[in-house]
């Protein structure tokens, strides 16, 4: 499986962002399942990101990280494709 995401190190904290479909972040159970499935792959806390029809991001995961990311322009995040087995 391939996913779009980013590994970030900011203020001494490392975490991953994974792009998902909007319905995942809108459903707490699905979002929790997604975070649990990605966490072992990245080995750091995982935050999910989905975009609405206008491209506005919504973040789901640790509140401190989600709050931080809401202030970061999407173009400043080092997105790349990850292959997950």
What do you see in this structure?
This protein is an alpha+beta fold and 85 residues long. The chain starts with a strand and ends with a strand. β3 and β4 form a beta hairpin. It has a five-stranded mixed beta sheet, with helices on both faces. It has one domain (2-83): 3-Layer(aba) Sandwich (Trna Endonuclease, Chain: A, domain 1), CATH 3.40.1350. Helices cover 31% and strands 35% of the residues. It is built from three helices and five strands; from the N terminus they run ββααββαβ.
Number of E-type strands: 5
Radius of gyration: 12 Å
Q: Distance N terminus to C terminus?
A: 6 Å
Query: Helix/strand/pairing class, anyone?
Result: alpha+beta
**Biggest sheet architecture:** 5 strands, mixed
Q: Architecture, CATH level 2?
A: 3-Layer(aba) Sandwich
**Which stretches are poorly predicted, pLDDT < 50 over at least 5 residues?**
none
| CATH class (first level) name | Alpha Beta
Helix and strand run: EEHHEEHE
**What percentage of amino acids are in beta strands?**
35-45%
Find the CATH topology.
Answer: Trna Endonuclease, Chain: A, domain 1
Helix content class? 25-40%
């Amino acid at each position: 499986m391939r996913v779009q995401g980013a590994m970030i190190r900011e203020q001494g904290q490392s975490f991953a962002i994974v792009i998902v479909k909007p319905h995942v972040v809108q459903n707490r159970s699905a979002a929790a399942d997604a975070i649990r499935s990605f966490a072992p792959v990245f080995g750091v806390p995982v935050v999910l990101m989905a975009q609405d029809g206008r491209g506005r991001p919504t973040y789901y995961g640790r509140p401190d990280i989600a709050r931080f990311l809401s202030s970061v322009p999407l173009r400043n995040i080092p997105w790349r494709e990850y292959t997950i087995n």
